[in-house]
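Worked example 2:
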Amino acid sequence: MNSAQEQAFSHYSDGVKRNIVPVNDTLEKALDAAVADFPHRVAIDFLGREFTYVDILEQVKRAATVLTMCGVRRGDVVSLILPNCPQHYIAFYAATYLGATVSEHNPLAPPAQLLEQLKSNGARIVIAWEQTIEKLTENTSLHGFTYLAVDITRALPRKSQFLLKLPLKAAKTQRAKLRGKVPPGVHSWDNQVSHAAPMNLGSLKGPELDDIAVLIQTGGTTGSPKAVQLSHRNIVSNARQVEYWLTDFKRGEETVAAVLPFFHAFGLQLSLSVCVSMAATQVMTPSFDVDILLAAHSRHPITFFGGVPPMFDKILKAIEKRPEVDLRSIRFSVSGAMPLAPELAKRWEDTTGGFMIEGYGMSEASPVIAGSPYSEQRRPSTLGLPFPSTEVMIVDPEDPDKQVADGEVGEILVRGPQVFAGYHNNPEETANVMWNGWLRTGDLARWDDGFLVMADRKKELIINGGFNVYPSEVESAVRDMPGVVDVAVVGMPADSFGESVVAALVLEPGAKVDLEAVRRWTEGKLSHYAMPKSIAIFDDLPRSQLGKVMRKNVKEQLQHFELSSGQWRQKLSDASSAASARFDSYLQSIHSLSGATQEQLKAWSEANSAQLDRLKTWVNEHTPTTEEMRSFAESNGITVENFKTWIAQLTTSKPSEDQETESGDDKPVAEDGNEPAAEATTSNATQSTKAEKEHPINDAKDAK
């Protein structure tokens, strides 16, 4: 144990022990215990529908029967390509009870990427969202996989399910966002589970501690696709470390916001491990949506919130206009995946009255390595202190045998029960990151009185909205674009979103390439968060003596342009102006097709000025492609049909019965009771727009 870590222990909160008791139970034992101790406690609130722990276990038993009938045995891989939903939770635990390995995937990842992951991981069964299956099988076969399709509307409240089936435009629009076309040969997961007999889980041998429980897809810090193998021991140990750290977390009493995606290590550990172990209630949403989240908060006041900085920022901005919202039930919150601005942390604490702490980790560590102490000894802008039973060294990046002096910058090495079992079928990459039992994180930091302080990332990973963007992957997608000679991709500061993806391009003589063309070219090749948000044109890229592009120098040049002459900022402004002009042109085409007069157009614009301002702000900030803009406008009710309806309402003293029915149908589609549906497309163009979503299953354009 080094002296710096000894200093770290002195800053531990009262009651936090240096070491956890070694774990003896596998993941599914936590669900057994929650059912035994809190059978009728609400485990999940999903858009207004509640599932108790007994309800969940009953569905898990049926799901285990389905998987067994599909041939799943201990050690097999079951791939889940799903948003956050009860079916995801149930399928995860059904596979776990059988001793299978769950492979988690982003449902909005490009189809080619998903197929590569499925083949590499050796999936026996693929349980996926209908829209994902539609993408994966478009113009192709089933690729030899056995798919089971999930209809997430089956988990909605009964009233919402009924309203979605009504022959109304609003219901049709909502169905299109939530459902997909399933090809022949693909069975319904929901039907199979509902008709299956419950399995006697006690008769199963079950998994062992060192069996692989989960595969998390990652590019590491190099960008090459890999699957992180996390054993039951890894995940359960990390959950126990978190529980030791959060001394105020009371079993059977907490309500947690389940907004982080389960395919991400942070979301998986929090929602599918810690919350189950602590028998918490989870308010679950398929994507991060402030309106839906606050509606859930009114039903089940949230006490713990784990998220990324953009989520906290959006919630705070939303409640500025909603003084009736009270967040003071949130006693403590954890921010991870990207740096948290001290001023944002203070705003959140002032609003909630609770503690905000930061965590540091990576998928290879299940994921938590360190965090701020749950006390007044917190130090903003640091990575915090190593967690219990977690050893940390800072070494010379070129010579891991040599520890650097306290205060000097070096690479973070980690050892503990949460450190992964290696990359799936990839011993070479595993050897690259493991050194004598220690995990090489690739992050550079220094000790400061026992606290870890990040200096820089050893690799040039970009963190955009909490998601990893690998420059080499983006460069590969852009480099073969017509007119492009060379490209370097870097991350530039972007307020609470962390970093924005910027592509520095060298063009062929006479070639003209704009941002819209780049985004159109990369669509389908990259996830939405990896697509460039801006471009800069270079005469040549800075290179080392060996000819390697120096991304650091590219970034420095961009910063210099912005600070000294505004040149780079002007390029972004030009791109935004062009996008705004395209949006105005799109509106004009909608009005023309509807047959509106200039007087009607003027009246409509005046009546909807606030909504138009919000839409234009989004367009200016995100510079979408024309297709993205069309989808975004349609998802906010700007269509020829809706405009015609508005004109009809304008020119008659009383709306028709059909119009009243359709407009009124928007409110309860996604929520039960009195809560409005946050994602419903309305025939009334004055309906307020939604904030852009943080992570996958964003809005209509992202779900297509």
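The CA atoms of residues 9 and 347 lie 29 Å apart. Confidence is low (pLDDT under 50) at residues 563-567, 653-704.
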